[in-house]
């Protein structure tokens, strides 16, 4: 008999010697397992029940702050959760739904508005950061009866298809031409000392943060250069 066989026989002998204890343990094990499962289930129900209870009186509430803004030239005062983005304040509180929520991560530009003359992604900034600011949304640029020149150019050149990104595109386009007019260079400006011109390359570079999934980029560039007085 080799060493391995001796080891197996030894284990079997030990098991047979304590067979009664092992049999009792097996029976009790099933009972204990059932009791444990019931206890765990009862605990889960209890915990979930506690989480569904209403907070007690006097519990901490969501912090709120008064925010005064000038939106499309109109003074507005809001009481907001301090965590509210400018985008949500415009859409949910002021019901200016022209500004769109796209990615909500500042990557698509659909939420672009003009704040104090500069374009920003309203999904990335808190409303409370703009106390007293001048905010212009797509609703403030023009009306169906009196379109802003950029709006009219987008219509003329088919600068959109589905239209979801268009409010952000137009707000950004208006601010881009103001940047060029103010002499602000871009990454493709070849001469930083010379005034930038609204060339096709300049316009496309500056608008690269505004995504159009319909692919109307060429038409958008044509609309912008027409408003700027140039040629695409």
How would you portray this structure in words?
This protein is 44% helix and 12% strand. It is of the alpha+beta class. It folds into 2 domains: 64-140, Beta-grasp domain (Ubiquitin-like (UB roll), Roll), CATH 3.10.20; 142-228, DNA polymerase, domain 1 (Orthogonal Bundle). It has a 5-stranded mixed β-sheet, sandwiched between helices. The protein is elongated, with a radius of gyration of 33 Å.
Task: Please describe the topology of this protein.
Layout lengths: L2 H15 L1 H33 L12 E8 L2 E8 L4 H8 L18 E4 L2 E4 L12 E3 L1 H4 L7 H8 L9 H16 L18 H7 L10 H12 L4
Parallel strand pairs: 1-5
Antiparallel strand pairs: 1-2, 3-4, 3-5
Helix pairs in contact: 5-8
User: How much is the radius of gyration in Å?
Assistant: 33 Å
What is the CATH topology assignment of the largest domain?
DNA polymerase, domain 1
**Unreliable sequence segments:** 44-50
How many separate domains? 2
- What is the CATH C level class of the largest domain, in words? Mainly Alpha
Sheet with the most strands?
A: 5 strands, mixed
Derived structural class? alpha+beta
């Amino acid at each position: 008999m080799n060493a391995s066989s001796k080891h197996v026989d030894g284990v079997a002998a030990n098991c047979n010697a304590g067979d009664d204890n092992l049999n009792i343990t097996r029976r009790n094990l099933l009972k204990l397992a059932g009791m444990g499962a019931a206890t765990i289930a009862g605990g889960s129900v209890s915990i979930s029940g506690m989480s569904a209870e209403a907070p007690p009186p006097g519990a901490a509430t969501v912090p709120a702050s008064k925010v005064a803004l000038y939106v499309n030239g109109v003074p507005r005062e809001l009481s907001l959760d301090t965590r509210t983005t400018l985008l949500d304040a415009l859409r949910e509180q002021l019901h200016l739904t022209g500004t769109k929520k796209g990615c909500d991560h500042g990557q698509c530009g659909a939420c672009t508005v003009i704040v104090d003359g500069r374009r920003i992604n309203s999904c990335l900034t808190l409303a409370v950061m703009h106390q007293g600011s001048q905010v212009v949304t797509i609703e403030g640029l023009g009306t169906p009866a009196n379109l802003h020149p950029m709006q009219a150019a987008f219509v003329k050149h088919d600068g959109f298809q589905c239209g979801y990104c268009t409010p952000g595109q137009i707000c950004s386009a208006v601010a881009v031409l103001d940047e060029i007019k103010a002499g602000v260079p871009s990454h493709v400006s070849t001469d930083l000392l010379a005034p930038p011109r609204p060339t096709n390359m300049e316009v496309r570079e500056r608008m690269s943060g505004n995504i159009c999934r319909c692919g109307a980029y060429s038409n958008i560039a044509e609309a912008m250069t027409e408003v700027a007085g140039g040629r695409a």
